[in-house]
């Protein structure tokens, strides 16, 4: 893959889609539910995904696409170039707050992350990384992550996971929540991952996400020396749902050894 060319195209489409989403704020949203009454989707999520798919198919007919809203391809492997797209990550925030949501794009070649873009539309902040070339916030290079320790760390996690739930033994997470300096919850996995990348928070945990939630952010965090795995410390799966644990160097090992194992 010609990384420069693919990156330039991806960047221009992300910015264009962002502009369209911004202009939708003045219009009435069509809101629908999916798996349950709190699992929301809007016409803007769908239109944005269709916009990317049309552009990618026209410009890169050999590339395949995995998108949350299901307009892309059905994938059973990651061979070749695969775009993993979340047209709006943080749809609930988009609907209720008109902030704290982002477009997320991860571009993989034979299963290896190459290009990640997360666009915080409301703040006009584009986070991106091209593997081996560094990560940027708009045009500014993001410095490599410094090591962090639990006692001084800010951890992002949804409060649901420390209540009794069917995904994870919640008792496992309580000592960690007690020990860190502070906790936060933003409601957009993509933004929480780039907050880890920029050091605004030091760790992010979610017991259940889909590939489009983390495909873009994981590339950016890793490009800066951060570590992204599942809650067991294993490699993330880009074809099925997975738990996600992203953290600064040092901190990832400390949390894994002392709190998660
Ligand atoms: C959601 C957000 C949220 C996470 C949910 C995701 P969506 O994505 O990333 O932070 O907790 O699990 O589904 O549905 O708004 O794209
Ligand atoms: Ca969704
Ligand atoms: Ca999402
Ligand atoms: Ca989404």
Automatic annotation (TrEMBL):
Could you state one GO biological process linked to this protein?
Answer: signal transduction
Q: Which UniProt keywords apply?
A: Hydrolase, Magnesium, Metal-binding
Cited PANTHER family = INOSITOL MONOPHOSPHATASE, INOSITOL-1-MONOPHOSPHATASE-RELATED
Q: What is its EC number?
A: 3.1.3.25
Q: Which organism is it from?
A: Neobacillus notoginsengisoli
Task: Please verify whether the record's keywords include NAD.
Answer: no
The keyword Transport is assigned to this record: no
Q: Which cofactor does it need?
A: Mg(2+)
Q: What is this protein called?
A: inositol-phosphate phosphatase
């Amino acid at each position: 893959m010609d990384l420069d060319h693919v990156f330039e195209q991806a960047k221009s489409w992300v910015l264009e889609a962002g502009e369209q989403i911004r202009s939708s704020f003045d219009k009435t949203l069509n809101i629908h539910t999916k798996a349950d009454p709190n699992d929301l989707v809007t016409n803007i999520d769908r239109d944005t995904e269709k916009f990317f798919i049309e552009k990618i198919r026209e410009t890169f007919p050999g590339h395949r696409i995995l998108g949350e809203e299901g307009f892309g391809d059905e994938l059973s492997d990651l061979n070749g170039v695969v775009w993993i797209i979340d047209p709006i990550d943080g749809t609930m925030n988009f609907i209720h707050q008109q902030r704290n949501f982002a477009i997320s794009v991860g571009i993989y070649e034979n299963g290896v992350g190459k290009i990640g873009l997360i666009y915080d539309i409301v703040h006009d902040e584009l986070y991106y990384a091209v593997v081996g070339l560094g990560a940027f916030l708009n045009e500014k290079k993001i410095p490599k992550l410094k090591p962090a320790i639990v006692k001084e760390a800010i951890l992002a996690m949804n409060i649901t996971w420390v209540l009794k739930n069917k995904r994870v033994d919640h008792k496992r997470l309580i000592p960690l929540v007690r020990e860190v300096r502070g906790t936060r919850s933003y409601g957009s996995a993509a933004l929480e991952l780039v907050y880890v990348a920029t050091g605004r928070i030091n760790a992010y945990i979610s017991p259940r996400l889909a590939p489009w939630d983390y495909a873009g952010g994981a590339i950016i965090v890793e490009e800066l020396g951060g570590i992204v795995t599942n809650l067991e410390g294993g490699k993330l799966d880009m074809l099925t749902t997975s738990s996600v644990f992203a953290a600064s160097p040092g901190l990832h090992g400390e949390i894994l050894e002392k709190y998660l194992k």
